[in-house]
Amino acid sequence: LSGGYSPTSAAGAVGHLLARRHGGQKDTRLTVPVRLLAQHQQTQRIFTIVMSAVAGISLLVGGIGIMNIMMASVMERRSEIGLLRAVGARAKDIVRQFLVEATLIALFGAAAGMVLGVVIAYVIAAFAGWAVAWSLPGIALAVIVCMAIAVGFGVYPAMSAARLDPVAALQTE
Q: What's the average model confidence in pLDDT over 86-109?
């Protein structure tokens, strides 16, 4: 309701109007489901909290996955990193290389997730008879968050790679 009216006061006003139109007789009964509305709002709040927690845990798991992939890459490419450092690559060049790789992994993951999400949304919508709504700002925010998580969780492996001693790294092979 607009104008700051409560559902109960609006129902009372409608009841008085109907009684006047029916010659003063109260031959209508209006029910205001205030408790049902409050319960619905509480259910929506709980659902939002639970879904936010699931999303947060998913982002954390995804970030840890990116970090593990990047740490494995650092371990597998120790000699390459040592060679790059031996021929003059600076530590920040190594950091940049690994952060770009982490970002690309996240970008491909975000693209795959969006395609899968769209397919699932259309399948559910087809069965339920719903329409799929697009939100470009929402999609952009999802990609930005994905990239931020990739960079955040890619910093440690990138710094580990940059700190490798070139001589020791070249001797590992």
A: 93
